[in-house]
Design brief:
One of its GO terms (cellular component) is M band. A hairpin with a 2-residue loop joins strand 16 and strand 17. The strands form 20 sheets. Strands 10, 21, 23, 24, 27 and 28 form a six-stranded mixed sheet that branches. Strands 55, 56, 58, 59, 60 and 61 form a six-stranded antiparallel sheet that branches. It contains five helices and 85 strands.
Length: about 1100
């Protein structure tokens, strides 16, 4: 069915303008707007309601905990809201961008399919922004509804997607303050949210009945209004209600038994409960309750209560069966009432649909209501439809579905059809066409350049049919450049000297027919970039702060819309680049980088192209940022309550000059930093004061430029504002030589609360005041060796302790020391592991470290088996305190006794080390099969000639079947030189091999048995009976003759040898004869192969036995 927007003007006016009878409700049928709900049914959504002008009219929206069930992409979901007509409301959705590589895509929908991005305008605005001020990156998306209308109400949906991730959230909007939901002419608001208003002209009324008394309405109403009241309030038994109403009008006589009687009538909603109450004169009187004359007994639904003089009948969960007359009796006196159970209003669940058909066709209007068996009314143009004698209208019911069927429709059947229930109504339009207009030539799309002529032409089947031309939905009027012609069946629209404003959609609508012909006029315009900041100069540079969104919105023109390409250098930038988002809209090309970084700085080029040409522009972008943090500050010195701190400028100033620094300090065990200066401090050295003595502090520095303050530097080394320590104690000489001296001391008695940084050692010649540092820096040890001292000189030494406050008082030797060597007897300290034989494998490294003592430095000598060592094989390295023997790859010949000697003049000391180099053993010798019996074989061999320079620890014996030659272990780590192999398989032939084993491992090669062991296979037969021997033979060419050889068996040519009345036993030999001819000599060659042996054993009392030979 064509869209209504493409009808003729007259038909469009007719379709949009509601019928007067439809647009205005009748006075006797008041329809009240539903009461404003107190909360929304939305669960885990959160909507922000805002009003740009007056917010006092907004209704409160339900605010659940927005943090629950947030397992998708949303960190905050839009929440259902309510608003009055003409006011504003905002829905907010937030998405966490911490785990997303690029900006997520968000779409807003109304209903199931209408994308609201195309509806942005006066009443709808979609906004988004990116916030990096927090530790978690958050994208915020907002939908602003401005001056809400009643048709904006409905279900909405927000969808967010990012690559392979997706999440959605549903929410509702309720608009209050408009009683009627009729659709009117869209006019200037044609781009609003109610897109369905452009397609359908129906009105759906859903109303809630006021709390009224049906009995009272029937009593006051004239008889002519009974039918209408029954339909409105769902009364199915109208006659019964009137009879009961007639009884109620009779006045009951006064009774002495009742102080208060039942009211004449009650009404209750279906499913609710009602309580009937009376008061009796005698508190002890017994009452009976009757329903339509039948006594009621207490049940779960009927509850009797007695409180003083009051008697109650409670009916729970009322149904239609409870609609009856109820009587309360005390003796012969009684009081009667009527109870009306009111059903809920019937709602229309599925509305009627507009239809357009051809004359003579059948039409079905179908709707669906909320209750089965509900009473409905069908109307045409405000007149109720009934079954007539011509059966023009037929009504069909199927559960909740109701269908109006119209047979053989005519032009008179056109109009608005309405279905009514007591809870709502729905309207649809029926349009009937007399005949179908054929299109011989449709109008085609045109693409023209400036000042060209555009001609739209179409041809229809009827010469008399007129039509109207539209441009973008507006009727085209002839003028000096525009000409409209109609010649026969051909309709033309000619536009001379085409201009850019002539571009658009052109439609031809035949009068009297509900379809149209459409085409598009495309105007070719060369692309052009309209930008003021083009170029690479400093004046045209665009500055962006790092972390913010870089958005380049470039105005462009061109028709057709040009394609846009963004580049940086030689690289083409696309949406697949993570943070980059490229978007083209009408008249603009937008380039966005989320969270600009330093590497985004540079020259960006935008290129626009269309078939009419191309244009290029360069944009220089500079990314400025806060400076890098300075390096960790250094504490130069400390006092009792102060310190001097120094730092270096940051390596990167963020693109803007550093204007100063901000310093902070904190106690080491605290988390709170205290700022020392509020104005930027321009120097890089600062004296911090007002600190507590004995408390450890840390310092850090911020760099500041015009963009902001950098991240803090790393904290300085902890320091304590304290005085220096006391002097070290117990300074003495530990050792001395011709050029060195060894000193030792103890830590100071008073160190203080600051940590000790180390010790400094100084010396000077006796009689001099010039103290020379013994080494650069400090040492943490309490022993030190001072080198390069002049021999024979008298020297004085002192030690000072250092902490953050500086050096302590010195500790000095009591007298000067003469630098001269002291004689010490040589002594070798042989390690415990070398006091026994050292065993190494061939190829392993040998590294012997033997410490010794002696002063002056002793002379070291090594020998092997009382002979000098070979320097090509053995390396010797000596020091003042030890000697090292090193062999990189040991060999068997390296075994032996090594002796080391240290000697000073005529005093010496010796020590010896035994080294044994071991290797894999050789193979065993002379492996023999000694005996074979049953399934057993006895083996014997001799030990290997080479035991690998260590004892043989055992042997590994293996067996293999000669058919497969797969080896299996029989014994491992077997210590003897003979063994018995058991559990062999009958009929198999075995070979054996033996490996020798020592502490290094198995011998590389085994010893293989020269002869094999065959496990005999025996056959048992009964003397005097037949026996059969068979075997399987394969050969090429085919085997022709088999010869069985035994003392009593003849030649046989088959594979089975049958022996009649066997009387002998022994070994059967089979010869296989093969013959073949060569192609040249035609000579027969006969080959006899010995392939099979079998033993025959003769028994007396057994049956025949069949022997199957092995396949060979």
């Amino acid at each position: 069915m064509p869209e209504p927007t493409k009808k003729t003007v007259k038909e469009a006016q007719k379709a949009v303008s509601p019928d007067p009878a439809i647009a205005e409700p009748k006075p006797e049928e008041p329809k009240e707007a539903p009461p404003a709900p107190t909360g929304s049914s939305a669960s885990d959504t959160s909507g922000t309601v805002s009003d740009g002008s007056a917010t006092e009219g907004l209704l409160e929206s339900h605010q659940p905990d927005t943090r629950q069930d947030l397992t998708g992409l949303f960190t905050e979901k839009p929440q259902s809201g309510e608003v009055n007509v003409g006011e504003n409301i905002t829905f907010v959705a937030r998405v966490c961008g911490e785990s997303l590589l690029k900006k997520p895509t968000v779409k807003w929908f109304k209903g199931k399919w209408m994308d609201l991005a195309s509806k942005s305008g006066k009443h709808l605005q979609l906004k988004e922004h990116y916030d990096r001020t927090f530790s978690i990156q958050v994208y915020t998306f907002e939908m602003h509804i401005i001056a809400a209308k009643a048709n904006f109400a409905g279900a909405y949906r927000c969808e967010v997607s990012s690559r392979d991730k997706f999440d959605s959230c549903n929410f509702d909007l309720v608009v209050h303050g408009n009683k009627n939901n009729y659709i009117t002419d869209a006019g200037e608001d044609s781009g609003e949210l109610d897109f369905s208003a452009l397609l359908k002209k129906r009105a759906v009324h859903v109303s809630t009945e006021p709390e009224v008394d049906v009995w009272e309405i029937l009593q006051k109403a004239p008889p002519s209004a009974y039918e209408k009241i029954a339909f409105q309030y769902g009364i199915t038994d109208l006659r019964g209600m009137l009879k009961r109403l007639k009884k109620m009008k009779k006045e009951e006589k006064k009774s002495a038994a009742f102080l208060r009687k039942l009211d004449p009538a009650y009404q209750v909603e279906k499913g609710h409960k009602i309580k009937l109450q009376i008061e009796v004169a005698n508190p002890d009187a017994e009452v009976k309750w009757l329903k339509n004359g039948q006594e009621i007994h207490p049940t779960g639904r009927y509850i009797f209560e007695s409180v003083g003089n009051k008697r109650f009948l409670t009916i729970n969960n009322c149904t239609l069966a409870d609609d009856a007359a109820y009587t309360c009796m005390i003796g012969d006196e009684k009081t009667v009432t009527e109870l009306f159970v009111k059903e809920p209003p019937v709602l229309i669940v599925r509305n009627l649909e507009d239809q357009m058909v051809m004359k003579g066709e059948r039409v079905e209007f179908e709707c669906e209501v909320s209750e089965e068996g509900a009473q409905i009314k069908w109307e045409k143009d405000g007149v109720e439809l009934t079954r007539d004698e011509s059966f023009k209208y037929r009504f069909k019911k199927d559960g909740c579905k109701h269908v109006l069927i119209i047979n053989d429709v005519t032009k008179e059947d056109c109009g608005h059809y309405r279905v009514k229930t007591n809870g709502g109504q729905s309207l649809a339009e029926l349009m009937v066409q007399e005949k179908q207009l054929e299109v011989y030539q449709n109008i085609a799309d045109l693409t023209v350049k400036a000042k060209d002529q555009a001609v739209f032409k179409c041809e229809v089947s009827d010469e008399n049919v007129k039509g109207i031309w539209y441009k973008n939905g507006v009727e085209v009027k002839p003028d000096a450049r525009t000409h409209i012609t109609h010649i026969g069946r051909i309709h033309k629209l000619t536009i001379d000297e085409v201009k850019p404003e002539d571009e658009g959609d052109y439609t031809f609508v035949p009068e009297g027919y509900a379809f149209n012909l459409s085409a598009k006029l495309n105007f070719l315009d060369p692309p052009k970039i309209h930008l003021d900041c083009m170029g690479r100069t400093a004046e045209s540079t665009i500055l962006v702060v790092a972390g913010n969104k870089l958005r380049l919105d470039v105005p462009i023109t061109g028709d057709p819309a040009p394609t846009v390409v963004w580049t940086k250098g030689e690289k083409v930038l696309t949406d697949s680049d993570g943070r980059v988002h490229v978007e083209s809209t009408k008249g603009h090309c937008i380039f966005t980088i989320e969270g600009a970084e330093r590497q985004d700085e540079g020259v960006y080029s935008v290129i626009v192209r269309n078939p009419a040409g191309e244009d290029t522009a360069d944009i220089n972008v500079k990314v400025v940022d806060v400076p890098d943090p300075p390096e960790a500050p250094r504490i130069l010195s400390v006092g009792e309550d102060s310190c001097i701190v120094q730092w270096d400028s940051p390596l990167f100033d963020g693109g803007q000059p550093v204007i100063g620094y901000v310093l902070e300090r904190k106690k080491r065990k605290s988390y709170r930093w205290m700022r020392l200066n509020f104005d930027p401090y321009k120097e890089t050295t600062y004296e911090a004061k007002r600190m507590i003595e004995g408390v450890a502090y840390e310092m850090r520095v911020y760099a500041v430029n015009t963009i902001g303050m950098s991240r803090p530097s790393a904290a300085s080394q902890p320091f304590v504002p304290v005085a220096p320590t006391s002097e070290p104690t117990g300074l003495c000489v530990d050792d001395i030589s011709d050029t060195t001296i060894s000193l030792k001391w103890r830590a100071p008695e008073r160190i203080g609360s600051a940590e000790l940084e180390g010790y400094g050692v100084e010396y000077c010649k006796e009689g001099s005041d010039e103290w020379i540092p013994a080494f650069s820096g400090l040492t943490e040890r309490t022993t030190v060796i001072v080198h390069d001292l002049p021999t024979g000189e008298k020297m004085q030494f002192r030690v000072r302790a250092y902490n953050m406050a500086g050096p302590s008082l010195p500790a000095t030797l009591q007298q000067a020391v003469t630098i001269r060597e002291i004689m010490q007897r040589p002594k070798i300290w042989l390690p415990r592991n070398l006091r026994q034989t050292l065993i190494k494998k061939v190829g392993e490294m040998i590294n012997l470290v033997i410490p010794f003592q002696g002063k002056p430095r002793p002379q070291v000598t090594w020998t092997k088996n009382d002979e000098p060592l070979d320097p090509k094989q053995v390396s010797i390295r000596n020091s003042d305190t030890d000697t090292i023997l090193f062999i990189r790859r040991s060999e068997r010949k390296d075994s032996g006794k090594y002796e080391v000697q240290v000697q000073i003049e005529n005093v010496e000391d010796r020590a010896s080390v035994n080294i044994q180099i071991v290797d894999l053993p050789g193979p065993p010798q002379n492996l023999k099969v000694i005996d074979v019996w049953g399934f057993n074989v006895a083996l014997e061999w001799k030990p290997p000639k080479d035991n690998g320079n260590c004892d043989i620890t055992g042997y590994t014996i293996q067996k293999a079947d000669k058919k497969t030659m797969e080896w299996y272990n029989v014994y491992e780590q077997y210590r003897r030189t003979n063994c018995v192999v058991s559990d062999l398989i009958m009929g198999n032939e075995y070979v054996f091999r033996v490996y020798a084993m020592n502490m290094v491992g198995l011998s590389p090669e085994p010893c293989l048995s020269k002869d094999s062991a065959y496990i005999q296979k025996t056959g048992d037969f009964i003397a005097g009976y037949n026996a059969t021997l068979s075997c399987s033979v394969r050969g090429i060419p085919k085997v022709s003759t088999f010869i069985y050889a035994c003392s009593a068996i003849l030649e046989n040519k088959s594979l089975n040898c049958k022996i009649k009345k066997i009387t002998v036993k022994g070994i059967v030999h089979i010869k296989i004869k093969m013959s073949f001819q060569t192609r040249k000599t035609q000579t027969q060659i006969k080959i006899f192969l010995m392939k099979f042996k079998s033993f025959l054993t003769l028994h007396r009392k057994q049956r025949n036995y069949h022997v199957q030979g092995p396949e060979t």
